[in-house]
Amino acid sequence: MNILVCDDDKEIVEAITIYLNNEGYQIYKAFNGMEALEIVEENQIHLIIMDIMMPKMDGLRATLEIRKDNNIPVIMLSAKSEDTDKIMGLNMGADDYITKPFNPLELIARVKSQLRRYTTLGSLEKKRNVYKTGGLIIDDESKIITVDGDEVKLTPVQYKILKFLTANAGRVYSIDEIYEKVWKEASVNPENTVAVHIRKIREKIEINPKDPKYLKVVWGIGYKVEKI
C-alpha cells in the first residue's frame, strides 16, 4: 500500500515514514499542498496523512482539490486540538483527525483502520466496481490492477484510460472520445498524448506489447480493450 505523508515539518515526515515503513508501507513525501496534489496525480496513493498549516497550499485546500476526483482516505494531522478545527477538517473531506504530538501506535492503528475500510469493507459496493476481462482485473475501490494475479502499477491517467476501456470492453473508442472522457476537456490534437499513454499501458499489462491480448488498436477508428 502506498501512503502519502504531507507536512512542512520534515522531521515529522521522517518520523512518520519510519513508523510506517516498519509496517511495510511504501511512503511518498510532500512538504506542501501543491506537492501533495502532484504526487496524487502521478502515483497510485491509497491513503494520505495531511497536515493543515503549510505554505503555498494548506491541507484543507489540498484535501478539497483531491476530493474532486478521488475518495482516497485522508487523515488530518495538526497541532490544533479544538473541536472547531476538527469539524472543519472533516467537513472539507477528511476521514479522520489526529493531533500533534501523537502516539505512533495510535497513528498506525488509525492508518490500518482507514485502509481496511478503503480496501475491504463495503464488499457489496466494491463488487459493483470490479472490471474484468480475461486475466485483467481492475478493482476500482482499492485502485488495484492485476493481470493473471500479478499487480500492475499505472499512473492515475493510465489507470483512468484502462478503466474506461475495460468497463466498456469490446467497444471501440476514438482518440477524441478517450481524451474527452479521461481529461474531461475538449480534445485538441490529442493523438500523440493518447498514443503515448496507450503504449505505456501495453508495456505494463501485455506479455508482448507488439501483439497485445487486451489493449488493441482498430486502425482508422481508435482503441478498445478486448472482451474475453
Descriptive account of the structure:
- With 228 residues, the chain is an alpha/beta fold.
- It contains nine helices and eleven strands.
- It has helices spanning 10-21, 33-42, 59-67, 83-91, 104-119, 123-127, 156-167, 175-183, 191-205; strands at residues 2-6, 26-30, 47-51, 74-78, 96-99, 130-133, 136-139, 144-147, 150-152, 215-218, 222-225.
- The protein is elongated and about 60 Å long.
- The model is unreliable at 122-127 (pLDDT under 50).
Short description:
With 228 residues, the protein is α/β, with parallel strands linked by helices. It has helices at residues 10-21, 33-42, 59-67, 83-91, 104-119, 123-127, 156-167, 175-183, 191-205; strands at residues 2-6, 26-30, 47-51, 74-78, 96-99, 130-133, 136-139, 144-147, 150-152, 215-218, 222-225.
Question: Which labels suit this protein?
Answer:
228 residues, Rossmann fold, 2 domains, 5-stranded parallel sheet, 4-stranded antiparallel sheet, 9 helices, 43% helix
SSE arrangement:
Blueprint: E1 2-6, H1 10-21, E2 26-30, H2 33-42, E3 47-51, H3 59-67, E4 74-78, H4 83-91, E5 96-99, H5 104-119, H6 123-127, E6 130-133, E7 136-139, E8 144-147, E9 150-152, H7 156-167, H8 175-183, H9 191-205, E10 215-218, E11 222-225
Parallel strand pairs: 1-2, 1-3, 3-4, 4-5
Antiparallel strand pairs: 6-7, 7-8, 8-9, 10-11
Helix pairs in contact: 2-3, 7-8, 7-9
